[in-house]
Specification:
4-stranded antiparallel beta sheet, 42% strand, disordered N terminus
């Protein structure tokens, strides 16, 4: 068996518990703009509910140039679409998503072997592809405080770094002839304060910590993997927030919260996780994990309590088909990669409602 093969971890007894807590309702606020409400209960039996207002979806360069996508679709119906118009630069197999300080959106794509850059504020789009010698299998994406772009490439076993204009700058890997830092780099996160770079090397069951020059500072976990505290089996996603890192330990079906030196703080057991699952954290420390099998997103408090779950299979706004990578922009906007629907969905987060405050 390849070291890259594993089956997702599911705990059937707990699935029944969650299903009893989750109840979705929809409240339309204009065309194509539902509000998702997912009630749940905290450990004291008090009712909490999460409300996420659907903002938009996008799947190609054409969505960037459309200032009024709903109106444009209506005009297509009335006047007919352009028969010779073809969709170019569209998402094929999107995986991860991130934003920068200017709220540009970056989406990695297995199918096109590109990083798609969507700049809605300036109605611009451009791809990063750089030929066959770069971005062989782009997976994770992150940006630093200067808006440089970092892309993990599981195909070449490296991290590619681009400047804010998309110009290639360097690989984060040793000089030729030395053993690579990574066997299969996957998720990536950057601490905006220290600018330390955290990379999940899934086949090695480790998290590698580097500085901006590419020098290895430390390694968390152990070769061969493990189930103990601070040990991983196929870690796939990571978020750096405050003085902590949150790691999606997919092979062990859990989240692990560590301090920035890799010392274990706590774990949160998940209902299901595999290499498609996404991870994000909002400004209040709530943790979001996507379930690509049942097309739901679970929201946990920092202490591990399940706040709620939302989502259901489908193609309509607010539904998912292969819910995957996630990102929270400025603590208030949630981006979700809807992989098999070949799109990204965007939601406004009501943090006060999530935490049950008036």
């Amino acid at each position: 068996m390849s070291t890259w093969q594993w089956v997702g971890i599911r705990r059937p007894v707990r699935v029944l518990v969650v299903c009893s807590l989750v109840c979705l309702s929809w409240s339309a606020q204009g065309p194509g703009a539902p509000t998702v409400t997912a009630p749940s209960q905290d450990h004291d039996g008090q009712s909490n509910s999460q409300r996420l207002r659907f903002i938009r979806e996008f799947s190609s360069a054409q969505d960037v140039s459309r200032a009024h996508p709903v109106l444009d679709r209506a005009l297509d119906i009335i006047a007919g679409s352009k028969t010779n118009e073809t969709v170019t630069e569209a998402l094929e197999i999107p995986y991860a998503v991130a934003t920068d300080n200017g709220h540009r959106v970056f989406v990695t794509d297995f199918g096109t072997r590109k990083l798609h850059v969507f700049d809605f504020e300036h109605s611009k789009y451009f791809p990063l592809k750089d030929g066959s010698d770069r971005l062989q299998r782009p997976v994770g994406v992150a940006t630093d405080r200067d808006d440089n772009i970092y892309v993990t490439d599981a195909g070449s076993g490296s991290v590619s770094v681009y400047d804010t204009r998309g110009k290639f700058r360097q690989f984060l890997k040793p000089s030729r002839g030395k053993e690579s830092y990574f066997e299969g780099p996957w998720g990536i996160a950057i601490d905006r304060k220290t600018e330390h770079i955290y990379v999940c090397d899934s086949p090695r069951h480790m998290v590698i910590v580097l500085d901006k020059s590419g020098r290895v500072l430390s390694r968390f976990g152990k070769r061969g993997g493990g189930t103990g505290e601070g040990e991983f089996r196929f870690p796939t996603q990571i978020v750096a927030v405050g003085d902590e890192i949150v790691v999606l330990d997919s092979g062990n079906g859990r989240l692990q919260i560590l301090d920035v030196r890799g010392r274990f703080r706590q774990s949160i057991h998940l209902l299901y996780a595999d290499k498609r699952s996404g991870l994000a954290v909002d400004e209040d420390g709530n943790i979001y994990v996507s379930d690509p099998l049942f097309n739901q997103i679970y929201v946990f408090k920092h202490d591990g309590r399940l706040l709620c779950a939302f989502g259901q299979p489908g193609t309509q706004p607010g539904t998912f088909n292969g819910a995957s990578g996630m990102w929270v922009d400025s603590g208030r906007t949630l981006y979700v990669v809807d992989a098999q629907n070949k799109r990204v969905e965007v939601f406004d987060i009501n943090n006060q409602t999530i935490n049950g405050r008036p």
